[in-house]
Design brief:
The chain is α/β, with parallel strands linked by helices. It is built from eight helices and seven strands, in the order E-H-E-E-H-E-H-E-H-E-H-H-H-E-H. It binds NADP nicotinamide-adenine-dinucleotide phosphate.
């Protein structure tokens, strides 16, 4: 019998990343869970029963190349293989129009959202080639839409989405997908409602305030289910594509593992 899949998930301390870790554990995978904030080495309340050795937390900053090399190395040391890489860690700031943006903060956004995934892929690819593994880059609708005050984020997500196409062309043994997770009820949306008004148009600001007020934000588990499924089961035919969390091509043929 094949050993359980081993998957790296970045941005695993909260939001979509934490929910993805829970989904993966529930599906029987081994998970290296990465964030700058230490993560408890047992799943959160309401999650699956803790199984010793299946969750390996790693404290690391994906903006640092050496930290990304260490993440891959440690995962291989602990689990002995790598089947999936989920580049989920992301930041929105700076929230400022281009002419008002601090250059260091703008560059840092690309360091986290774009270069972090590049560094991790750089070191993960040799291991993923061996297992015919999968890379899931958590992108955003912002990759295809310019939003006033979000320039670094929109540019980074557009580049991450194109980077996924590059991966598909260069690495045919690996399935690489960029996912649009929808508008999700996480700390990032809190930040948009709290600080976005200074930089965004009034219409955009109202749009995000109303999504929350009307209960229309997605729970993190909804895109997480798609991310986890893709990390374990994405078919080769999806490689290089930018797909929505609710795309009908997802969840076949493993729907029973991931529920309705
Ligand atoms: N929420 C939405 O509506 C939405 C929509 C479209 C796309 N997305 C994308 O979905 C992904 C997850 O977002 P979320 O909404 O779950 O955000 P979130 O709640 O703010 O979580 C972000 C995660 O990234 C981690 N992180 C940030 N900087 C990091 C770094 N330098 N190194 C390692 N980890 C880092 C954070 O952990 P630490 O702070 O502990 O490091 C945290 O676990 C992001 O890529 C985001 O762009 C979200």
């Amino acid at each position: 019998m094949a050993p359980p899949a081993a998957v790296i998930v970045t941005g695993a301390s909260r939001g979509i990343g934490a929910a993805t870790v829970e989904r993966l554990l529930r599906a029987g995978a081994h998970v290296a869970a990465v964030a700058r904030t230490p993560i408890a080495d047992r799943p959160q309340a309401g999650g699956p029963d803790p199984v010793p050795g299946r969750l390996h937390p790693i404290v690391a900053d994906v903006a640092t190349p050496s930290a990304c090399a260490r993440i891959v190395e440690e995962t291989i040391d602990v689990f002995g293989r790598l089947n999936g890489l989920v580049n989920n860690a992301g930041i929105l700031e700076p929230l400022a129009r281009i002419a008002d943006s601090d250059p260091d903060r703008w560059r840092h956004n690309l360091d986290v959202n774009l270069l972090g995934p590049f560094y991790l892929c750089r070191w993960a690819i040799p291991h993923l080639r061996r297992t015919g593994g999968r890379i899931v880059n958590v992108s955003s609708g912002a990759a295809v839409k310019a939003i006033q005050g979000w320039s670094a984020y929109c540019v980074a997500k557009a580049a991450l989405t194109h980077f996924t196409r590059q991966l598909a062309v260069e690495e045919p043994a690996i399935t690489s997908v960029a996912l649009r997770p929808g508008v999700v009820d996480t700390a990032m949306q809190n930040l948009i409602r709290r600080n976005g008004g200074q930089a965004m148009t009034a219409d955009q600001s109202t749009y995000f305030q109303e999504l929350k007020a009307k209960g229309k934000l997605l729970p993190a588990d909804e895109p997480a289910r798609a991310v986890a499924w893709l990390a374990l089961s994405a078919p080769t035919a999806l490689s290089g594509q930018f797909i929505d969390y609710d795309d009908p091509r997802l969840f076949t043929p493993d729907a029973e593992v991931f529920g309705p």
